[in-house]
């Protein structure tokens, strides 16, 4: 399946900056294709509906040159959109994510993307990911993010951190 998606003319993951040689994991895939039996068949006449359950997936540089690892994700792709949802880790921090791509734009530069993430970050996981933060937080901080982009730019983004279950020690304000 991976060889089909990554081959010309599809080269599907390359559109999103994913290098097929650096992805890893296991997947159970279901593919439905509908097309007319015609001599002049072109890819725009093929209707595709693909679902996959990915386990222990690794996707390099998925966001800002950061790897997604330990991905347990549900993928759905059809002619109109891509949706990827599930759990994984980035920089050792656990997260829940939902990534949606809309393919209905007239030009590739107008493709709309949406990223929703959430994570409960403990002080030890934060220190592992960012050693310079050791001692600044104890407890659990809940992070949520909602980012919308086009191919060339971030159009909106909201990232919130709830520190209700955490204690911040901000020098010299402590």
Explain this structure.
The chain is mainly beta. The protein is 7% helix and 57% strand. It contains two helices and eight strands. The chain has helices at 2-6, 123-129; strands spanning 24-34, 47-63, 66-78, 81-90, 93-102, 112-122, 137-149, 154-168. It has an eight-stranded antiparallel sheet, covered by helices on one side. The longest helix has 7 residues, at 123-129. The radius of gyration is 19 Å and the shape is elongated.
Strand % is over 45%
Spatial strand sequence of the major β-sheet: 1-2-3-4-5-6-7-8
Structure summary, number of beta strands: 8
Mind telling me the C-alpha Rg?
Answer: 19 Å
* Unreliable residue stretches: none
Q: Mean pLDDT, as a whole number?
A: 82
SS-based class: mainly beta
Order of helices and strands: HEEEEEEHEE
What is the 3D shape? Answer: elongated
Distance between the termini: 55 Å
Number of helices: 2
Largest sheet, in brief, is: 8 strands, antiparallel
Helix proportion range: under 10%
Keywords, please?
single chain; 174 residues; mainly beta; eight-stranded antiparallel beta sheet; 8 strands
Give the helices and strands, then pairings.
Layout: H1 2-6, E1 24-34, E2 47-63, E3 66-78, E4 81-90, E5 93-102, E6 112-122, H2 123-129, E7 137-149, E8 154-168
Antiparallel strand pairs: 1-2, 2-3, 3-4, 4-5, 5-6, 6-7, 7-8
């Amino acid at each position: 399946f991976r060889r089909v998606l990554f081959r010309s003319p599809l080269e599907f993951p390359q559109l999103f900056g994913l290098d097929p040689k650096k992805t890893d994991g296991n997947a159970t895939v279901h593919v439905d294709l509908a097309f007319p039996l015609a001599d002049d068949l072109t890819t725009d006449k093929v209707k595709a509906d693909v679902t996959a359950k990915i386990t222990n997936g690794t996707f390099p540089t998925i966001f800002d040159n950061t790897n997604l690892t330990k991905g347990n994700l549900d993928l759905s792709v059809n002619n109109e959109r891509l949706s990827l949802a599930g759990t994984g880790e980035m920089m050792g921090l656990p997260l829940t994510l939902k990534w949606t791509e809309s393919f209905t734009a007239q030009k590739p530069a107008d493709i709309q993307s949406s990223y929703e993430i959430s994570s409960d970050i403990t002080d030890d996981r934060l220190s592992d990911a960012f050693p310079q933060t050791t001692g600044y937080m104890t407890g659990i901080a809940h992070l949520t993010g909602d980012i919308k982009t086009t191919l060339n730019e971030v159009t909106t983004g909201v990232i919130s951190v709830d520190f209700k279950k955490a204690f911040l020690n901000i020098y010299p304000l402590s």
